[in-house]
C-alpha cells in the first residue's frame, strides 16, 4: 500500500503538472505514453518475432499526433502524405513482410500490431487533442474527474449493494449495481461541476457524464479482456503498486476517443 501511495503521488504530480502546462510538453508526454502503452501490449503477447515490423507499427502509433502537432504550432509538416496515407503504407509493409517472411510473420501478427497501434495511438492522441482546445484544461479535468468518480461509485456501490455480476467472464468483481452507481455518481459530479464552473450547460454536462461513465467502464472491461486473454494480472510494471501505463489510462483512452468522434465540445 505504501508503494502504491508513493507512486500515486509522484506520478499524479507529473501528470497534473503537464496537463496544466498543456501545449507541446503535454503533446510530447502523450506521445511517450503511446509508445509505452504499445510496448506493454506487445509484451503481453510475448512477442518473439522480428523487431522490424514491431518497430514500424510502433512508429505508426504516433501518426495521429501529426495533425495535432500541426494544429498546436500552426504550421504544416513537410511530409507530403496524410497520416492516413502513412498508416496505409505501414499496413502494406506489414502485409509485404508477411509474404517475404514466408508467413513466419503471420496475418494474425499484422492484425494484432495494427489493432494495437490504432487502439493506443488514437486513444492518447485524442486526449492530447481535447487538451489543446480553447477550454481544454477545464474539459480535460472534468472528464478525468468523471472517470474517477465513476470508478469510485462503481466500487463502493458494488461493494455495498452489488449482487448481480456485470461480466463475470471478463471481470468477476464488477456488478450491475456498481455500474449503475458509477453512472449516477458521475451525473451528480457533472451537475456540481457545472454549478461551480459553468462549462457546457446542465443538459450537455449530464449527457457528457453518462457517456463518460458508460464508455469509461467499457474501456476498463476492454483492458481486462486483453489481460485475461493473455493471462497477465497487470499490463506492465512501470508504476509500482499500480501496474503499467494501460492499467491507469485504459478508461481515459477509450473515453477521449469517443468524445472526439462525437465532437461533443463543438
UniProtKB/TrEMBL annotation:
Localization recorded for this chain is: Cell membrane
Q: Which reaction does it catalyse?
A: a 1,2-diacyl-sn-glycero-3-phosphate + CTP + H(+) = a CDP-1,2-diacyl-sn-glycerol + diphosphate
Please list the GO terms describing molecular function: nucleotidyltransferase activity
Q: Which residue ranges run through the membrane?
A: 6-39, 51-69, 81-100, 112-130, 136-157, 178-196, 202-222
Q: Does the keyword Coiled coil apply?
A: no
UniProt keyword terms in alphabetical order: Cell membrane, Lipid biosynthesis, Lipid metabolism, Membrane, Nucleotidyltransferase, Phospholipid biosynthesis, Phospholipid metabolism, Transferase, Transmembrane, Transmembrane helix
How does this protein sit in the membrane?
Multi-pass membrane protein
Q: Name the enzyme group at the top EC level.
A: transferase
Protein's recorded name: Phosphatidate cytidylyltransferase
The protein's organism comes out as Exiguobacterium acetylicum (Brevibacterium acetylicum)
Amino acid at each position: 500500500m505504501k508503494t502504491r501511495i508513493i507512486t500515486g503521488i509522484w506520478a499524479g504530480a507529473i501528470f497534473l503538472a503537464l496537463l496544466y502546462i498543456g501545449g507541446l510538453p503535454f503533446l510530447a508526454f502523450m506521445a511517450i505514453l503511446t509508445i509505452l502503452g504499445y510496448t506493454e501490449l506487445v509484451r503481453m503477447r510475448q512477442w518473439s518475432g522480428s523487431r522490424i515490423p514491431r518497430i514500424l507499427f510502433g512508429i505508426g502509433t504516433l501518426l495521429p499526433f501529426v495533425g495535432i502537432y500541426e494544429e498546436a504550432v500552426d504550421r504544416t509538416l513537410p511530409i507530403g502524405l496524410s497520416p492516413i496515407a502513412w498508416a496505409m503504407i505501414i499496413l502494406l509493409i506489414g502485409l509485404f513482410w508477411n509474404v517475404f517472411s514466408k508467413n513466419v510473420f503471420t496475418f494474425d501478427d499484422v492484425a494484432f500490431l495494427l489493432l494495437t497501434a490504432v487502439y493506443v495511438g488514437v486513444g492518447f492522441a485524442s486526449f492530447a487533442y481535447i487538451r489543446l482546445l480553447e477550454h481544454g484544461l477545464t474539459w480535460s479535468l472534468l472528464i478525468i474527474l468523471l472517470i474517477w468518480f465513476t470508478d469510485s461509485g462503481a466500487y463502493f456501490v458494488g461493494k455495498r449493494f452489488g449482487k448481480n455480476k456485470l461480466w463475470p467472464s471478463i471481470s468477476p468483481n464488477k456488478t450491475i449495481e456498481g455500474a449503475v452507481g458509477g453512472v449516477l455518481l458521475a451525473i451528480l459530479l457533472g451537475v456540481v461541476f457545472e454549478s461551480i464552473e459553468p462549462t457546457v450547460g446542465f443538459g450537455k454536462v449530464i449527457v457528457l457524464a453518462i457517456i463518460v461513465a458508460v464508455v469509461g467502464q467499457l474501456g476498463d472491461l476492454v483492458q481486462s479482456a486483453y489481460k485475461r486473454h493473455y493471462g497477465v494480472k497487470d499490463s506492465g510494471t512501470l508504476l509500482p503498486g499500480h501496474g503499467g501505463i494501460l492499467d491507469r489510462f485504459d478508461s481515459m483512452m477509450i473515453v477521449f476517443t469517443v468524445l472526439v468522434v462525437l465532437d461533443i465540445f463543438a
